[in-house]
Amino acid sequence: MNKEDAIDWLKGYQLHYVKKRFGDKYQSKFTGNESEKFCSAVDAYLESKTDLTEEEKLDIEIEMKNAAFTSTVLHTEYESAFNYEILKTIAAKYYELNTGQSPPEHIYLGTIFSGEIKAEIIAKPDLKASFILFDGELFLACLLLCKIIAQSLPFTEQPPHLFLPIDKKELYARLVADKKTADRIVMGLYCCVFHKPGNSPQYFIDSELQEYITAYLVESIELFIFSHEMGHYWHGDLEETSEKPAFRGDTRTEWHEEHMADLHGLNQVEKLFRENGQWLTLIGPEIFFHFLHLQEQLRPEFAKQDSHPPALQRLSYYRQFLTNFVDEAEQPWLQPFQSTIDLLFEYYEKLLRKTVTNLKAFMASTEYQEIMTKKGDQKI
Q1: pLDDT per residue as tens digits for the range 222-280
Q2: pLDDT tens digits for range 98-129
Q3: What domain count does the chain have?
């Protein structure tokens, strides 16, 4: 399969979601010359990077535009240059950590705009290719989650950066001390859980240290998600076979495959940890599992899905796997981080439930109905 055919298939898949979310009338917004649109998006992306010199921007522009037409990371008019650049960076990091391993020629990478905050790997036997696709809003949700963590915990300038131990009451008091920040944290979580991350990250004003913490966490989560999908490919999960048992022990077959894909993701995260020596790197996937658990708790449809194990089971397996990667002498450093994240998400869930209850009550109120009626009149 050549790259042009892969792009044509991806465009059709992306367009399916565009129509599903916005209707046929929005398709016209994306028509036009694909290359010109992508290059314009690159120019807009670089224009926003005010911390770079013109020479640095030119080097990046050449790299991005050359890579767009040579790599297995696909671009079309149905995506943003921001998401393309994030995906290209994650893929490059994955192969940097796996020296000597080249990207499979029949695996293509791309983004979609489904609004479902997901990643997936799709086998297309008729095309003799597979596609690993990431929702652009998944990247945005990861960034928002990491900003929320950076604003919730007392970080310090010196490694391991988290001031420990943290008293249970002290942690909650810190979380709700500044009402404006607390409201942003809760609404940011609400937007992630209910698939509306939007532009929320820009409302978090980070200190230099918080940006530093966020960068480590984001790299860790994105690498883990990417590596999880690659794990499905390397483990042969896409191959159809009648030899696979329906159950393995007390774990469904597809759940076993998900745990093994998580293990592949952890393997890459551990390599990144050995490279940068930053404990926050090992915590990134745990934050993501806790986020998935929030979805399961607040959205019944997520608790009922059975394509993946429950999030807390995945977290438990991840921590079991982690004991094989972290030396016994390193465990005392890791455990306080894990306990703090566990406690923090307990508080997040309580605050979110309160917010959801208040929102439902408000939407059922006469005041809300009057507001909606006025908006309707204004539209007319």
Answers
A1: 999 999 999 988 887 665 433 343 333 344 556 888 899 999 999 999 999 999 888 88
A2: 887 777 778 889 988 777 888 888 888 888 88
A3: 2
Same domain, 233 and 308: yes
Q: Do 139 and 222 form a contact (C-beta atoms < 8 A)? A: yes
Prediction pTM value: 0.80
| Same-domain check for residues 148 and 280 | yes
Q: Which two tokens stand for residue 126?
A: 């008729």
For residues 280 and 210, give the distance between their C-alpha atoms in angstroms, rounded to a whole number.
Answer: 12
Domain that holds residue 188: 139-363
Residue-wise pLDDT for 127-152, tens only, equals: 888 899 998 889 989 999 999 998 88
Largest CA distance in the chain: 68
CA atoms within 13 A on the CB side of 46: 20
Q: What's the CA gap between 167 and 164, in Å, rounded?
A: 9
Contact 135, 114 (CB under 8 A): yes
Q: What is the dihedral of CA 216, 220, 222, 223, to 10 degrees?
A: 130
3-state secondary structure of 121: strand
* Cα–Cα distance for residue pair 56/14, rounded to 1 Å: 32
| Residue 37 and residue 147 share a domain | no
Cα dihedral 283, 284, 290, 296 in deg (nearest 10):
-160
